[in-house]
TrEMBL record:
HAMAP family: Glyoxalase_2. Residues 10-162 form the Metallo-beta-lactamase domain. The gene is gloB. Monomer. Its cofactor is Zn(2+). Zn(2+) 1 binds at H52, H54, H107, D124. This is Hydroxyacylglutathione hydrolase. The lineage of its organism: Bacteria, Pseudomonadati, Pseudomonadota, Gammaproteobacteria, Pasteurellales. Thiolesterase that catalyzes the hydrolysis of S-D-lactoyl-glutathione to form glutathione and D-lactic acid. It comes from Alitibacter langaaensis DSM 22999.
Length: 232
């Protein structure tokens, strides 16, 4: 089971669980809809993975700890106040899951993404048709992070933390040559959003066709488009 639970304005909390297993929860903006969801589906969390220390990803941690004081919360050093286990690279092993940690700094310096059973939880590093703002100013680090994600198999299921897809597609339409792939995706996602369905997850195969920040194959191009997107 893979579910994006809407939180705050446009965040998602991802909940992933293999059949008959307890769940992994990615980021905790708040817990208002998370707790009822877990109860409804009879799911217990066995780990929380924090991608980075922005408030819209961690503000729900204290309330979560009150409900589940013994569930480990993994995150990078910048999340030290909220995480119970600090990680930076390598692997996390929980009772049911092997989780690969992928360093994806640039949005924040220590931003992490997590790969579990071909599901990529990439926080604010990679969005559908877009990427996170480079708050660190280190464009090279962000570019290298995205190249690292791009090297994952096409079949990778990509689970970003925000519903930004339509705005990102509008920007992609303005800079990419591949207008028809972007246009098709705009039509599809507009229909989904009219029905209040999430536009996510996406796949690495699709993103390679519609995401300017994966298509940019050199740093100057990446910087040009990222700065243009900030003004878009
Ligand atoms: Zn952020």
């Amino acid at each position: 089971m893979l579910t994006p639970i809407p939180a705050l304005n446009d965040n998602y909390i991802w909940v992933y669980a293999r059949e008959n297993c307890s769940a992994i929860v990615i980021d905790l903006p708040e817990i208002n809809r998370l707790i009822p969801f877990l109860q409804q589906h009879n799911l217990l969390p066995e780990a929380v993975l924090l991608t980075h220390n922005h408030v819209d990803h961690v503000a729900g941690v204290p309330a979560f700890k009150q409900h589940f004081p013994n569930v480990p919360i993994y995150g990078p050093k910048e999340c030290a106040v909220n995480a119970t286990h600090i990680v930076h690279t390598g692997e996390i092993r929980t009772p049911h899951y092997h989780i690969q940690i992928i360093p994806t700094g640039g949005h924040t310096e220590q931003h992490l993404s997590y790969l579990v059973d071909e599901h990529l939880f990439c926080g604010d590093a990679l969005f559908s048709a877009g990427c996170g703002r480079v708050f660190t100013g280190d464009y090279q680090q962000m570019f290298e992070s995205l190249q690292r994600l791009k090297s994952l198999p096409d079949s990778t299921i990509v689970c970003p933390a925000h519903e930004y897809t339509l705005a990102n597609l509008a920007f992609a339409q303005s800079v990419l040559n591949n207008k028809s792939a972007v246009k098709n995706q705009q039509i599809l996602i507009t229909q989904q959003r009219e029905k209040k369905q999430p536009s996510l997850p996406t796949t690495m195969a699709l993103e390679k066709h519609i995401n300017p920040f994966l298509i940019a194959d050199n740093l100057p191009q990446f910087i040009e488009w990222r700065k243009a997107k900030d003004r878009f």
